[in-house]
């Protein structure tokens, strides 16, 4: 097979564009001006006075940096950042600079660049020599930014964007600098592997770091408050569901907890007087609230028109909050909320919502909502998933695709998913389960697939098949399995562990052998993965048994492999060795789509659409 999918652009049948589905609740009309090629916008950051917002959007075909006036509704302006894709952007508190994260070639390796809001003085400021940049917080009222450069080891620094001066604070493995006090005397560090992280406060003068008294869980987000005397932190150390706590010295005070939701993310005002809380309720629906730190009173903010929220950020004075909103019917869109008035609205005629349909593209009068379903795995563990039923005259059974998410610390939610809609348009049902290891259901569920617990996650996939068949949803002879990243690994594992259950599969950027993954991935990715997958030496036999590459002789389902050519997270070798193992297997149809210029995440809309079309056509061909 070659780098181009055999027949990927000439497969029989029409190219069906992606649709969109509304929030749970049944059929709904398409929004005005909707088109299948609607774009995404994300990573909003407000100017200090709230008059403008900078954000990332793929309006031009690839993610770029856009600036828009929040008051006049004038058209957005594209900043001249070059041709490389952008994944994140942030506006300095003094209003003088915009810093963005660029990913040359689409690889996980990232660079930090700075540009003036008027589009001048564009230059690289961090991420040199193949290191990867992680941005932290700005120091209040300044152009100084906390930055971590990660390679074989990590270097935490304060970077003056205006002058380029770098002050290195410390180095180490699995290290991320979150915040620094205004006088740069104390630094807040995150350390540790995935799902087992902790926070430390570093005395910069002495180099001594003291861990926060939050043990036995995962503490991964934090900011200084009270001039550095207090740390605000997101943690599940004291509760299975993540909460917000304040740590002062050795005292821990819980500020926000809910019995029905976990704290997914939070943002603080520059003066540390208020906190925006993003709650994740069971199933993945978001709720937004504002916490007054002086009174500790929490009140709900107006719910944006969507189901899933992310990426919230305050303007300098806290008078305006920007966040990303999406639902099954709409892609990621920027919303602005006035916390004092309790009012919110979408960012004008956001570039992600075209004013008129695209000429020549079909319009779809209604869409079908996903349904949240609960089931039990073989060992009795409760799991759930979102079911998308194709629009038709009968109730099933249908040819059905099980889609496994990446991470595994991630979650299927009622969000925008063009791939699912392309499958529905071809008459295929889709079930998107949150197997053990998924986020959104508490620490115990996230940790349930660690090391040997992965056998349970694999069994969860078989339980999904049993549920779909016994419920009359799926035709047992026409079930497919797909996934990307960790979901691609789990797809390969399910196809080779339960070959009798599946009639087709697609693995996108999936691991096939843990040994080669640990050898070839980025060093910082390998170090952080040990807590989830196991140690490459100490758990060698376990990892070999969990690696689907060694059971490819059991594969029976037609298999499509999709990978980004520049992927250094899950290197392309992981797909290539599966292809080699299938060499000469005329009894198993297989093909390979390699996307040039893309890394682990497909950032260009054309690349994403190519992968969607190829995946949908492959499954429609082999399941219909």
Automatic annotation (TrEMBL):
Which UniProt keywords are present, listed alphabetically? Aminopeptidase, Hydrolase, Protease, Serine protease
SUPFAM superfamilies per the record? alpha/beta-Hydrolases (SSF53474), DPP6 N-terminal domain-like (SSF82171)
- Look up the domain of life of the source: Bacteria
According to the entry, every stretch annotated as the Peptidase S9 prolyl oligopeptidase catalytic domain falls at 421-623
Keyword check for rRNA processing, yes or no.
Answer: no
Gene3D superfamilies hit by this protein: alpha/beta hydrolase (3.40.50.1820), TolB, C-terminal domain (2.120.10.30)
Q: Which GO terms describe its molecular function?
A: aminopeptidase activity; serine-type endopeptidase activity
User: What Pfam families does this protein map onto?
Assistant: PD40, Peptidase_S9
Question: Has the keyword Hydrolase been applied to this entry?
Answer: yes
Instruction: List the InterPro entries.
Output: 6-blade_b-propeller_TolB-like (IPR011042), AB_hydrolase_fold (IPR029058), Peptidase_S9_cat (IPR001375), Peptidase_S9A (IPR002470), WD40 (IPR011659)
A single Gene Ontology biological process assigned to it is: proteolysis
Designated name of the protein: Dipeptidyl aminopeptidase/acylaminoacyl peptidase
Q: What is the originating organism of this protein?
A: Catenuloplanes niger
Lineage from the top down? Bacteria, Bacillati, Actinomycetota, Actinomycetes, Micromonosporales
């Amino acid at each position: 097979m070659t780098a181009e999918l055999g027949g990927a652009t000439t497969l029989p049948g029409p190219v069906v564009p992606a649709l969109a589905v509304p929030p749970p609740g049944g059929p709904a009309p398409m929004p005005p001006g909707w088109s299948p090629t609607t774009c995404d916008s994300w990573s909003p950051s407000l100017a200090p006075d709230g008059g403008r917002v900078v954000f990332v959007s793929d309006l031009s075909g690839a993610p770029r940096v856009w600036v828009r006036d929040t008051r006049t509704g004038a058209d957005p302006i594209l900043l001249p950042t070059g041709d490389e894709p952008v994944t994140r952007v942030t506006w300095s508190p003094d209003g003088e600079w915009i810093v963005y994260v660029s990913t040359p070639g689409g690889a996980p390796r990232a660079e930090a660049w700075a540009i003036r809001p008027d589009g001048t003085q564009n230059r690289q400021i961090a991420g040199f020599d193949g290191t990867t940049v992680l941005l932290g917080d700005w120091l209040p009222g300044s152009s100084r930014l906390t930055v971590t450069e990660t390679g074989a080891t990590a270097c935490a620094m304060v970077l003056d964007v205006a002058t380029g001066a770098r002050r290195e604070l410390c180095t180490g493995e699995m290290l991320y600098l979150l915040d620094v006090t205004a006088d740069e005397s104390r630094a807040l560090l995150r350390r540790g592997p995935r799902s087992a992280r902790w926070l430390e406060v570093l005395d910069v003068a002495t180099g001594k770091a003291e861990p926060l008294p939050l043990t036995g869980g995962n503490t991964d987000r934090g900011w200084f408050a009270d001039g550095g005397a207090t740390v605000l932190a997101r943690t599940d150390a004291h509760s299975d569901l993540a909460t917000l706590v304040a740590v002062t010295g050795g005292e821990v005070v819980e500020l926000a907890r809910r019995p029905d939701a976990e704290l997914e993310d939070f943002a603080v005002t520059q003066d540390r007087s208020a906190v925006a809380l993003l709650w994740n309720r069971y199933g993945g629906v978001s709720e937004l609230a504002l916490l007054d730190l002086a009174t500790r009173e929490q009140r709900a903010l107006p719910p944006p028109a969507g189901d899933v929220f992310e990426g919230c950020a305050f303007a300098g004075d806290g008078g305006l909050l920007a966040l990303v909103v999406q639902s099954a019917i709409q892609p990621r869109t920027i919303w602005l909320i006035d916390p004092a008035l309790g009012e919110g609205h979408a960012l004008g005629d956001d570039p992600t919502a075209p004013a008129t349909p695209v000429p020549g593209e079909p319009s779809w009068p209604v869409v079908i909502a996903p349904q949240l379903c609960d089931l039990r795995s073989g060992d009795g563990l409760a799991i759930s998933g979102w079911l998308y039923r194709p629009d038709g005259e009968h109730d099933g059974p249908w040819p059905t695709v099980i889609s496994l998410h990446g991470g595994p610390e991630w979650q299927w939610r009622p969000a925008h998913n063009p791939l699912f809609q392309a499958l529905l348009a071809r008459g295929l049902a889709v079930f998107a389960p949150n197997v053990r290891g998924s986020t959104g259901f508490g620490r115990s569920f996230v940790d349930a697939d660690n090391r040997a617990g992965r056998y349970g996650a694999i069994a969860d996939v078989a339980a999904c098949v049993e549920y779909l068949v016994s419920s009359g949803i799926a035709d047992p002879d026409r079930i497919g399995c797909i996934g990307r990243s960790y979901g691609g690994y789990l797809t390969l594992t399910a196809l080779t562990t339960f070959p009798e259950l599946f009639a087709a599969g697609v693995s996108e950027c999936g691991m096939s052998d843990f040994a080669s993954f640990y050898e070839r991935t980025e060093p910082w990715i390998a170090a952080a993965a040990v807590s989830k997958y196991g140690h490459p030496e100490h758990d060698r036999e376990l990892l070999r048994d969990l690696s689907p590459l060694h059971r490819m002789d059991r594969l029976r389902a037609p298999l499509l492999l999709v990978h980004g050519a520049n992927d250094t997270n899950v290197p392309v070798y992981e797909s290539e060795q599966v292809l080699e193992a299938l060499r000469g297997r005329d009894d198993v149809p297989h093909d390979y789509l390699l996307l040039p210029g893309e890394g682990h995440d497909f950032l260009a809309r054309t690349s994403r659409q190519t992968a969607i079309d190829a995946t949908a056509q492959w499954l429609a061909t082999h399941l219909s």
